[in-house]
Amino acid sequence: MTTNNSDITIRTATHDDVDITVKLLKANFINDSILVWIIENFDKRNIAFDDFFHMYVTAGINCGIVNLAETPNLGVVGAAVWLPHDVNTDTEVETLVNTYTAEFLNYSDIMHEHYPPVEPFFQLATTAVDSSAHGCGIGGALIAHQLNEYDKLGMPTYLEATTRRVAGGLYSRLGYQPIGQTILFPNGAEAYPMWRPAQEPNSVFASLKQVNITQKYPMLDSVMQFGKFDWRVIDVQDDKALLLCDTVIESGKFHEQYEAVTWENSGLRKYLNGDFYNTFSSEEKSKILRLPISNYSNPWFGTSSGGETKDYVFLLGVDGVVKYFGDSKQLRSKNANSSYYINDHFNDARKAVDTNGMFACWWLRTSGNLPELATFITADGRISMGGDFVNRSSKYSAGIRPSIWIKLKE
To answer: Which among 53, 74, 275, 368 is least buried, having the fewest CB atoms inside 10 angstroms?
Structure first.
């Protein structure tokens, strides 16, 4: 069966496609933090993963389904491997990767401990998109294609998301919900179990953007280095991109003293557009745009967040967090269980770590429920609509996670 969407064709893989599918999966996951835990040495991992992914792809073709996305010009640019709940690959692991059997079986055991205690279901074992086509919607189209088939059968599905952002973004839009506890690995890596009951056929396609492999900037949700930090691309408009620092870069007060203050006259705005902005080189500064920033009042409490500003560097507001990390409608309808927090299934997507890899709070530019307070994201990913003291400075205070708009071409 094939599905055409723009210039993408999705088709079922055969045994002739095993090698190219393995190559694609390896390129995507060779440095994945979870799989690095299995084999730390890159050269050894590079060899063993040929067998590891060959096993999954072959099992998918024999017992489940493997779908490929391809274009006339680029060939195969995406793959998704689905396995039925009762497939056991332990024997194949012992045969194919016998040097690291214990490590791979340990990985398998950890994953299986979190499997749904119901049956039958299909699992999205792995999916990957070629780096040349990131941000084009191919991964979503691949998954939606097969979900539509499972919906016709009334078949639920399960997966383990490897990042908080994709768990709260794409997978949530496709109808998946967090289930059970986060999967924790000894090296600190995490995976997020997600479950999707069967839905009405074709309903999943309404949540996806049209696939367009020729879009000008296929970079959305990628991570890029700019200046001294890594930044996540969270929006692309025409010839500019919105970057959010991928980590909480440092602790810092929103304002130096306890008083009524908005983003417009805050000490943190002055610092970000002064000392912090000056850490960029002249070439980097030439790419950073100074644009008007709307500062909306706190939507729950009506507290003013000040007038419009023009900034090189800024913080996201509550509205931006909801826009880019997921909208559970609590921003408009409020949280029935809390008067001060947006607390929903997008918490994991909003969580961030500091430079030491520890989960950390981060300031937003929206005022709290009082003019002496500013909103922030808690370490567990909730949006604190009430906020915290603008002058708090301790290990428990929020940190700085800046944003910038940059030009994508001269």
So the answer is: 275
The residue written with tokens 């296929």 in the block is: 218
Among candidate residues 407, 26, 78, the one with its CA nearest the CA of residue 211: 78
- The SS3 call for residue 410 is coil
Cβ contact 377:384 at 8 Å: yes
**Cβ 130 vs Cβ 78: under 8 Å:** yes
Length of the chain: 410
Tell me the torsion sign for CA atoms 263, 355, 170, 210. positive
- Beta carbons of 172 and 344 less than 8 angstroms apart: no
| Higher-pLDDT residue of 319, 39 | 319
CA distances from residue 154 to 109, 179, 198, 241 in whole angstroms, order as listed: 28, 19, 5, 40
Distances (CA, A) of 390 to 250, 256, 269, 397: 16, 8, 12, 9
Burial label, 368 (beta-carbon count in 10 A; 0-12, 13-18, 19+): buried
Closest to 246 in 3D by CA, of 360, 77, 99:
360
* Cα distance between residue 117 and residue 340, in whole Å: 35
- Scanning 239-357, the segments in alpha helix (DSSP H) are 267-271, 282-285, 318-325, 330-333, 347-350
Sign of the CA dihedral with 59 first, then 35, 346, and 306 last? negative
Query: What count of other Cβ atoms lies within 10 Å of the Cβ of residue 86?
Result: 9
Structure tokens at 360: 């950390």
Whether the model pTM is above 0.70: no
Write the DSSP string, 338-389: BSSEE-STTHHHH-EEBTTS-EE-EEEEEE-SSTTEEEEE-TTS-EEEEEEE
Type and span of the H or E element at 4: strand 3-5
Average pLDDT over residues 312-323: 96
Q: Is the pLDDT of residue 42 over 70?
A: yes
